[in-house]
Every structure is written in C-alpha cells, then in structure tokens.
Amino acid sequence: MSRTARSRPQAIPGPRVVIALLLLLGLVSVMLLDGYLRAEVGNDQRIRSDASASKVPDSVLDGGPLLSFRGGTARTQSVPDKTIVLTFDDGPDPEWTGKVLDILDDNDVPGTFFLVGSMISRYPDVVRKVVDNGNEVGVHTFTHVDLSYRSASRITREIAQTQLALAGAAGITTTLFRAPYSSTNDAIDNYSWPVYKKLGALGYTSVFIDTDSEDWQQPGVDKIIDLATPKNGKGASVLFHDSGGDREQTLEALPRYIKRMKAKGYTFTTVSGAQQQDDQTQAQSGQDTRTGQDRTGQAAGPPAAASAAGSGTEQAAHRKADATTLWEGRALLAAVAVAEWTVPVLAAALTVVGVAVLGRFGLMLLLARRHYRQRNRRRFVWGPAVTGPVSVIVPAYNEKECIAHTLNSLASSTHPIEIILVDDGSTDGTPEIAESLGLPNLRVVRQENAGKSAALNNGVRQARHDIVVMMDGDTVFEPDTVHRLVQPFGDSEVGAVAGNAKVGNRNTMIGAWQHIEYVMGFNLDRRMYDLLRCMPTIPGAIGAFRRTAVTDVGGMSEDTLAEDTDITIALHRAGWRVVYAEHARAWTEAPASLGQLWRQRYRWSYGTMQALWKHRRSVTDRGPSGRFGRVGMPLVVLFQIVTPLFAPLIDVFTLYAMLFVDFRASLLAWMAVLLVQLVCAAYAFRLDREKYRYLLVLPFQQLAYRQLMYLVLIHSCVTAATGGRLRWQKLKRTGVVGSPTSGTESR
User: Fold this and answer.
1) In what helix (H) or strand (E) does residue 104 lie, and over which residues does it extend?
2) What is the mean pLDDT of residues 157-181?
3) What is the structure's pLDDT at 2?
4) Higher pLDDT residue, 429 or 599?
5) 241 part of the active site
6) CA-CA distance, 747 to 742, in Å (whole number)?
7) Distance CA 694, CA 443 (A)
C-alpha cells in the first residue's frame, strides 16, 4: 500500500460508524424500555397526602365507589346491598395472580383486576388467563405512580400505554380505571380532580373502594377477613392485592372470605355488573331486581348483570381492540420480550467481563511489580554487554517538521550507531533537510513511494550491523536510549526488544489523556506480557531486532496495517523471545486533535485485528514457539478486543442502574472501579517515575477519551466484519517534540 494512499483523508464518521452507533442506540433503547417497565426514572414514588379537596363536589367525596361522567355530569354509584365486587390491584404477577384465579374459579366467583401496564407487558400470558376466566380488567397506570404529580401528557401516556399492552396481551381495551395510592373517594383532591374529569369525558369509570382488606400490610388472615367484611348487609367494593409482595395471607384468607360472605347471602359480581344492577335498581324505583341465578347459585341480579359477569370480551367494560391498537400492542409486547431477555443476559455477560477486567488489573499489578524488581536488581544482566555498533533505521515520508529533531537526537547517542534514513518518496524536502544536517554517521536512502513496511525492509537490507533499531520519523531518542534498548541481545534467545514510548506533547488535555494511556495501558501491559513471554507488539516508535530474526520471518509484512504487531507475532512463532526494556525511552508526538487521534487508533485497531487473524493458527503451534498462541493470543483477543467492546455497555448499564435501580449504589460502584483504575495508574506512574499531577485528568479521561477509543474499536470491528478495507492514515505533525532534554523536562 503506497504512502500516497495513506495521505488521503477519510470521512469521520463513515457509514460503518453510523451502523455501530445505531446498534448501540438500539441497545440503549431496549435498556430504557426495560428500566421504564420496572420503575419510573429516578425511582420516584412520591405520594400526595395533604392536598385540599375544596374543588371536589361533596357528592363525589361522600358518594359511592364507582365514579363516571355520563352526560358530562359526575355520578357516583354504590355496590348494591348483599353484593361484593372483589377487586385486585398491582398485577399481573407470575406467581400470585394465577393462584388467585384458581381460588376464584374453584369458588365460581368473578373478580375485577386493576393491572399495571408494565406488568401486563412482562406477563401477557397471565393477563389472557385473567380475561379468559371471565374476569374484568381495569387500568392501574403503566408505572404505578401518583398521577397528581404528573403532567397531563404523562397521564395520557400512562393510560394509553397500558391500553396498548392490554390490547397486545388479550386483544381488548377497558373502560375501567383506578389510580395508584387513591383507593377511596376521599383521596380525590384538587390536583387529581381534573384528571378524573378528563378520564370521565373519555368514557372511563373510575373505581374506588369502600372496604379495604389491608392485605398489603399482612395483618393476619383473620384480620384480613374481618376488614373485608361490610357491615349491616351493605354492598361493597373490596380491595385485595394479587401482586406487590408476599401474598400468602391473601391466598389463605380469600377462599375463607368467599365462603363466609356466601353464607351471609352475598353474591359476587364485577364492576360493570354492579353498575348495571344499580341502574336496574334505580330504574325500578327500589324494586327487588335479584331474579334468576348468578354464578354463585344465590339470588342474582338481572340478566344484564349476569352478562357482565360472563366471560372474555363479553364483559361490559371490555372493548375489542381495533386493528391498529392490536398490532401496536403486539409490537410493544415484542419489544418488552426482547428487553426482558436482553438485559439479564447482558447483566450476566458484563458481570463476567467485570470480573475478568478486575482480575487483569490484579495480574498486571502483581506481574508489573515482579518485572520491575527483577529488571532493576543491581546484579541483573542479560548476558555479555552489547557494545558493538548497531544500525538505526528511520523510515520517513513528508516529515520536514520533525526529521531534524529526530536525527539530531540520534547524533547524541552514547552507543555507536549508523543512521539509515529511508525516504519513502517524500515531496516536502525531507531528505534534503536530513542531508543538510551534515551528520557523519547518516546515510540517506531514497526510494519510490512504497509504504512503511517496504521502507523498513529496504533499511534492513542496507544495514551494516547485526542489530537494527527501528523508529518513526517523528520520534526523539534520549542519548542512552539505543544503548539501553540493545542490552537484552546479550541473551542469544532474544530476537526483539520493545522500548518505552512516551508522549512528548502532553501539555494539552488530549495529550495528557494519551500520556496516561501510554504509561498505564501500554507499559503495564508490556511488563505483564514480558514475564508471560507473549509480548504482542513492539511499538513502531522504538524497537530493536536481530537482523537474522527479521530475515528469518520474511521481513516486515505488507499484509496488515499493523506491521509492528505482525512481525512481533511472527517472531514468537519462529521461536524468538521478545522482551521489554523499560529504561529505553523514546519521545513521540501523539495526535493533537480528536480527528487525527481517531484515524491513528482506527488504523492500529484494525491492523491488530488483521495481524491476529493472519496468525490465528498460532493457537495450534506446538512447543516453545506456541506460547504466544496458547497465552498471548487469548489475552490479546480478550482484553484488547472483547472486553473493550463490552466497556461502553458497562457505562450504559451503569447509567441504567443509576436511573432505574439505585443511583447512590450505582454511583459508588462506578467510583470504586475508577478508584481501582486510579490505583493501577498511580502504580504505573511510580514505576515509570512520572509526575502524578497528570492523574488529575483521569476521571475526565474515563468520561470522554475512553468513549472515543471504544467507538474506534467498534468501528474497526464493523469494518472487519463487513469486509471493508482501510487506507493508511498519514498524520499531520507539528514538530513540538524537540530534543531529548526538552522531552525529559516535560515529565
């Protein structure tokens, strides 16, 4: 691939970025839906209990529990004498509602269930059973919140969403409504009264109670039965619960209560059945209308009431959903089903990833400490000191801003070197600038534009010495860098050495973030990989090789965009050892803008994936040369590709937990993870003898810079998965990284 191709700009973001963002948006939407189903944002459970009711008519406050607005006028109705309307709130529940239905069916009585929309969406099968068993259902809002605190649009949405869920689950809508935390008429206040008037205008009957079993307080079975029993033969709208906690006492009390009331001559009906009985009673001026038999076998109401207690959509309160509402409801249930499946699976996966990441942090700290103590012992030596001259290869393409700094830093080397500048078809006068420096140990080799790998291979061919050092054209070495870098070659098993790349332009926010990344992410990793003998990458900015090792593996490959990772893995597979020289420092100019940073990391990430795929068969290599495949390959894939892919999801899940679960606990958990990262970063800074002040920007790095790196990785994965190709990205350099002295002072 030519350097000319490298220099062409690439639009950011491209179509693949949009695809990745759409996937992330879809996941976020699913999680928001799941959170909305489980609790209101912020877990807001405020209940208004001290509001005035001065605007509410006394006839409503003192009237019966069934409130409607027929003809536009508020009208309350009572449950006829010797009649019970069993109402159940807060369901459906997968455990308790079915058991309540069995009790009702065994005793041949109907019930009226006020359902929470989020619960309907999660358990539609239970709702179908409720309706198919001949019971009535009503709306109990979607998220079970006090509507007096909600806007008119929120209230409309709460009810409409519940109706959609009901349509999707059972193919019906309902005209019955009960507001949470407002079980009796005297709960109507100046805030909620307009809500009830609006609902009445829409045809809803608001259902209250006049008898409360208080089963939600679990006062004991006998107490529940006593509280649910109306006095003096009066009819009653009685409240029980089929969800919202442990309902064992409810299940035990309910059959005994039904038998007790039947023994007293009571009949059981639904809300619409009670309304029709009351209408008949008033129409006949108080005449006894209980003729025929109802489902209990006792004296029954008129045929209309019996019809109201019938089955399925024959209930007077039920309406068959129109086609649009039906399909919208089914779509809602499908989305909920996806959310119900996705979030638990994601939570389990992220738990595994979190444990793996924390385990990696622990392993890095342990091995980094061991590496530091081992390599900094006074008596530690690799073998015979390496004092002979080495060749330093500098590939360059349009590096006029940096090349003088780079070559002058090499001229100050304390180790004997020859400098080979391989100019890869520069058009900005780079080779002329190099020649004008008049350095005695410099050779300038010109070639047609052929790419970095070709330039490095040309330099290896031109090298006069057995050890070659490779660096970038924008990198600055300290005087003793080359000497420290080549000492591990005293061990005949060592085929390559990775140096310690430092960010020189760290005086900006982006530079400081990259400085933390280099010190913590790259160098701690290299210490760990060094001890495990599976170093995945020798950085292009500073690396040394045995010339024979490079030629053994065919030189620098042009198959991938990460030639440094490619040749490192190839050396492992050829049986060479790759090590890390922490004291061999090089100062490099990191990208100064987010656009350039994106292009650089996109190439790194995509190139790494190419190299791993190219060497995928290393996992089956045998013997010492197979160590990278057995250890390094899984570690790199897991911690440089898989876990970073999950990292944005961890952040999204953290926000989900803050919004819908427990804000304080979730925030503390996030801060604990940040603290772990801070400890690791501080230890890495200590090992590299860096100033701790840069760690002050670590929290901002987690919130901004890290997200960009994740998007880059996602972009690379989408590109790889879709078979896309990526050109080399030539970054704009400014030459701000000067002499080694100034670079050192920047620390």
Assistant:
1) helix 96-106
2) 93
3) 42
4) 429
5) yes
6) 9
7) 39
Q: What is the pLDDT of residue 653?
A: 79
Q: Which residues of 274-306 are buried (b: 16+ CB within 10 A; e: fewer)?
A: bbbbbebbeeeeeeebbeeebbbeeebbbebbb
Residue 723 has a pLDDT of 66
Is the model's pLDDT at 186 over the cut of 60?
yes
- Which residue among the candidates 241, 371, 405, 615 is catalytic per the annotation? 241
Please tell me which residue in 89, 146, 472, 525 is annotated as part of the active site.
89
Q: Are strands 417-424 and 390-396 parallel, antiparallel or unpaired?
A: parallel
Q: Are the C-beta atoms of residues 237 and 211 closer than 8 Å to each other?
A: yes
What pLDDT shows up at residue 730? 54
Chain centroid, CA 453 distance in Å: 39
**Position 90: which residue type?**
D
Is 89 marked active-site?
A: yes
Residue 185 identity = N
52 by Cβ neighbours in 10 Å (0-12 / 13-18 / 19+) ranks as exposed
Instruction: Region of 232 please: left (phi>0), alpha (psi -120 to 50) or beta.
Output: left
As given in the structure block, the two tokens for residue 696 are 């002050």
Count the neighbouring beta carbons within 10 Å of the beta carbon of residue 585.
23
Q: What is the pLDDT of residues 476-495, one digit of tens each?
A: 999 999 999 999 999 999 99
Helix axes 124-132, 152-170, angle to 10 degrees: 70
Dihedral sign for Cα 300, 308, 253, 99, please: positive
> Does residue 419 surpass a pLDDT of 70?
yes
Secondary structure class of 276 (helix, strand, coil)? helix
Alpha-carbon torsion (39, 44, 47, 52), positive or negative: negative
Cβ atoms of residues 373 and 469 within 8 Å: no
pLDDT 10s digits, 264-277: 999 999 999 999 98
